[in-house]
Design goal:
76% helix; Tetracycline Repressor, domain 2; globular
């Protein structure tokens, strides 16, 4: 059983939860300046994020299984190598989706009503590469749901801050996914798949990625200004900016050998941002 659990954890890349989860919690923290935030509500927010992300990642792996089997970079994933069957994958997706809706219901009728919409958004990304070159922007949209969802789940009122935070994470994720997609350029062209590197070429795609990361930093700074956050938050945003600049410095059109290293740096962005916000809101 532990080995099977490990297979499922690898199937949905549990470690990649560090991308969206910190921003969902950051959205809730922002709202907590206005409405009380209980540990119980935080627990349900985390449960929603884990189940929604697991369902979305499982759907992505299922939708891409045929291409993954033909791509040397992804052929060792669980479905192509037979570690999981399609039936097991479908059952997992259904269970996680139902669990997400149930967890959302614990946060109130608004979250329950929005749960199917959230699932539709995160599932669509996995199909986007068949129909549009702007696949990476749709991944950004899927991840941008996290901070807005955290804000709504915490009971925050209608304000612009969570949407700016959503813009920040959406631009950040789209930016690093563009870099990641560059390494599959030839495969995607051969298979007729669409992406921004395929449409614009590597050099222009990297330039777009850098522009998106600039949007991220500007949006994060605006969140701090509008929310009245202080020095600790500003330092955190500055450190995020440094990380993103370093990430971009590792990748160029002439050298894509460091794409994986650049991608892995993103695991620190959300954690650093959440820590800075938490200290600013509750300590500073």
């Amino acid at each position: 059983m532990p080995g099977r659990l490990q297979t499922y954890a690898s199937f949905v890349r549990v470690s990649h939860s560090v991308f969206a989860l910190p921003f969902a919690l950051a959205g809730a923290l922002l709202a907590s300046r206005i409405v009380p935030l209980t540990w119980s509500r935080v627990g349900w927010i985390v449960a929603c994020m884990v189940t929604a992300r697991s369902a979305a990642m499982g759907f992505n792996r299922l939708a891409d299984a045929t291409w993954d089997a033909r791509n040397p970079r992804t052929a060792s994933r669980e479905l192509p190598r037979g570690a999981l069957s399609r039936r097991e994958a479908i059952l997992f997706i259904v269970v996680m989706s139902v669990a997400f809706v149930w967890c959302a219901a614990q946060l109130g009728w608004v979250c329950l009503a929005l749960a199917p919409v959230a699932l539709a958004i995160v599932f669509w990304y996995s199909l986007a590469k068949r129909y549009t070159s702007y696949t990476q922007l749709f991944l950004g949209l899927a991840m941008a749901v996290a901070p807005a969802g955290g804000w709504i789940a915490a009971g925050g009122p209608a304000q612009i801050e969570p949407w700016l935070l959503g813009l920040a994470i959406g631009a950040w994720v789209a930016g690093f996914d563009i870099l990641y997609a560059c390494q599959d350029l030839e495969f995607d062209r051969r298979e007729g798949l669409r992406s921004m590197p395929v449409r614009f070429g590597v050099a222009r795609a990297i330039a777009i990625s850098r522009g998106l990361h600039l949007v991220t930093v500007i949006a994060l700074a605006l969140v701090g200004q509008l929310a009245g956050l202080g020095t600790v938050y500003a330092v955190g945003v500055g450190l995020v900016a440094v990380l993103l600049v370093y990430e971009q410095s590792l990748v160029s059109a002439a050298d894509l050998s460091q794409v994986k290293r650049a991608f892995d740096l993103n695991g620190w962005v959300g954690l650093l941002y959440l820590a800075a916000m938490a200290v600013d809101v509750y300590v500073a």
